[in-house]
Amino acid sequence: MFVDWLVEEAYCLRIVLQLSQHIPHFTTLQKFTERISGTLLGKIISSFIILTKIGQLFIGIDSSGFKATHASQYYTERAKLTRRRKYISKLSLTADVVQQIICTIKIRRAPTRHDTIDFQPLITKTSEILPLSVVIGDK
């Protein structure tokens, strides 16, 4: 879907990335995500934040789980299908809510007990990039 969005709607982004003539195949993006290390990805994200020249970050933190199937929870319960796992992976991230830019991410391959496991490490990593003014999260 990202490549389709890039072709149809993101003209300015294509110009900045110099992709006006050739847009990469979607498998290129998949291969990139499989090969890039988390440390390198974190450094790339940090460099974007430093380029914005923000004085202090107004951080929001949240997590989301990814399911192995496309079936809704309602359908699964209604059809009385067995559920082995609720989520196969979990993404936790911090973002500056004023500039709307992602600051740090943590991807867990297995489901976790609760979102609070990643709260302290993510806030610590974010504060190493720039000073924090406010941190908010959902409950």
- How many distinct helices? 6
Characterize the overall form. Answer: globular
Structural class comes to alpha+beta
Portion of residues in beta strands equals 15-25%
| Amino- and carboxy-terminal Cα gap | 30 Å
Arrangement of strands in the largest sheet? 3-2-1-4
Average of per-residue pLDDT values: 78
Q: What's the order of the H and E elements?
A: HHHHEHEEHE
Instruction: From the alpha carbons, calculate the radius of gyration and give it in angstroms.
Output: 18 Å
How many domain units?
Answer: 2
Low-confidence stretches: none
Percent in helix: 25-40%
Largest sheet: 4 strands, mixed
By DSSP, the count of extended strands is 4
Description of the structure:
By secondary structure, this protein is α+β, with helices and mostly antiparallel strands. It folds into two domains: 1-35, no CATH class; 37-137, no CATH class. 39% of the residues lie in helices and 23% in strands. The protein has six helices and four strands, in the order ααααβαββαβ. A four-stranded mixed beta sheet has the order 3-2-1-4. The longest helix is centred in the N-terminal third of the chain and has 14 residues, at 38-51.
Topology, please?
Elements: H1 2-8, H2 11-16, H3 26-35, H4 38-51, E1 57-66, H5 73-78, E2 89-96, E3 101-108, H6 119-129, E4 132-137
Parallel strand pairs: 1-4
Antiparallel strand pairs: 1-2, 2-3
Output the keywords:
single chain; 139 residues; alpha+beta; 2 domains; four-stranded mixed beta sheet; 23% strand; globular
